[in-house]
Amino acid sequence: MKVLVAMSGGVDSAVAAARMVDAGHEVTGVHLALSKNPQSFRSGARGCCSKEDSHDARRAADLLGIPFYVWDLSDRFIDDVIDDFVSEYAAGRTPNPCLRCNEKIKFAAVLERGMALGFDAVATGHYAQLTETDGRVALRRAVDQDKDQSYVLGVLDQHQLRHSAFPLGDTRKPEVRDEAERRGLIVARKPDSHDICFIPDGDTQGFLDARLGQRPGAIVDENGQHLGEHAGTHQFTVGQRKGLNLGAPAADGRPRYVLDISPVDNRVTVGPQESLRVNRIRGIRPTWTGEALPTDWRGHVQVRAHGAPVPAAAEFDGTEVVITLDDAATGIAPGQAAVLYDGDRVIGSSTISATERVTPTAAGVMHG
User: Fold this and answer.
1) Active site positions, annotated
2) Are strands 345-358 and 363-367 parallel, antiparallel or unpaired?
3) Which tens digit of pLDDT belongs to each residue from 217-270?
4) Are 285 and 330 in contact (CB under 8 A)?
5) DSSP-assigned letters across all residues of 81-129
6) Secondary structure (DSSP) of 246-259
């Protein structure tokens, strides 16, 4: 095949490119320029997409003897990822920009352009696996459970999966680094990026303040009693404990958590951790890796990139996905992705719009 490898400048994409060359494919490397003003050097494991990263990607491509290009997708990245990130926080939700980047940039914009140029597939250094049965491609978890990235790939559809390759899915990360070293790739021991790529200093609150400004409002308890002030609802996420700055502790001495964020009346509601427990999730804008969700579906749902999958049932009415957890869970925020799994196979993903605490006789508070 003619394969386009997205080379970030890290060890994973460099080894992915090397393996595609070894497999006999006609490989071209491409580095995605996603920032209008990339920093000169990253600091340790912070951020990515710096000038240093593009140079590292080019050096890896040169070592492998493959053509290499830099594609400027900064305008589309701003529109589809950064602006979406800011607007979601402004609406009181907690987005996952990596998932959005996969959906809108790496497996949409890059794949579209690549196929228009005659490429058959896009390969990346993501840790996930693809298998094919009866003409259908299935997205599965990686062998390395600690590095598994199937969650952030759950937005991909069958067409995108058919034209994707994840060469590292069957390998553990330490083995990938060792392989890179054997191949003479200088990125073999380069630290992984752990931050949002467009916020390399890790100051998400400062980033949002600069774009949304400060809008002081009230922090209240579940009964509406005034407890303190905040500088903007975008500074909070459901389940947050630190940074509330309430001064006086709760009457019972227990820590308080953010229960609800309401940008409309500019209020943040806090309360005990018990009040965060929900057992029903409503999801919108679903995507399916294959067929849409069957009736009476049971499996597991994961709501964070490295969260534990929990047993659940789900229904899909053609518009909304309703997921009922076997056991109530905490820390589930509107804006996050709810990704459904059948064993290690990804069924699909939806954006959480609301959560509920329900019992057989009555419904509880909805968050979102």
Assistant:
1) 101, 197
2) antiparallel
3) 999 999 999 999 999 999 999 999 988 888 777 888 889 999 999 999 999 999
4) no
5) IIHHHHHHHHTT----HHHHHIIIIIIIIHHHHHHHTT--EEE---S-E
6) -SSPPTT----EEE
